[in-house]
Amino acid sequence: MKKIIIIAITVSIICACNNSDRIEKLPSGYKVFYEGGSQNRLLKDNELIIDSGLVDCKFRNDYLLISVDTTYSMYPEKINKKNLKYLIQNIKTDNAVRNISYINLQKIIKAKSLQDIDITK
Questions:
Q1: Fewer beta carbons within 10 Å, N or C terminal of the chain?
Q2: pTM of the predicted model, to two decimals?
Q3: In 10 A of CB 30, how many CB atoms?
Q4: What is the DSSP letter of 114?
């Protein structure tokens, strides 16, 4: 009976863990793996671009806007947006501008009319 209970608990845990994970497929071979906490990742063609701490990733046309928490918090979505690291990725040219400040990203969003994917809000 103990074995059956242990197996049932193990199966429940495995199923619960798998259900919380989410993969978002983006253009040009990019994928975001939302595994929770600091385990969120960004890959391109199955190669790591961001190995941990991804908070948010939105895309439109040629651009990915990405925010990253470098504190390894288990609740990165609760970190003040001004304390996150930002990058913008041009999907067509595969060029990234890294370590953009909160204020400078807001300026880029306005200049490129990317308000609909603004991750600073």
A1: N
A2: 0.77
A3: 19
A4: -
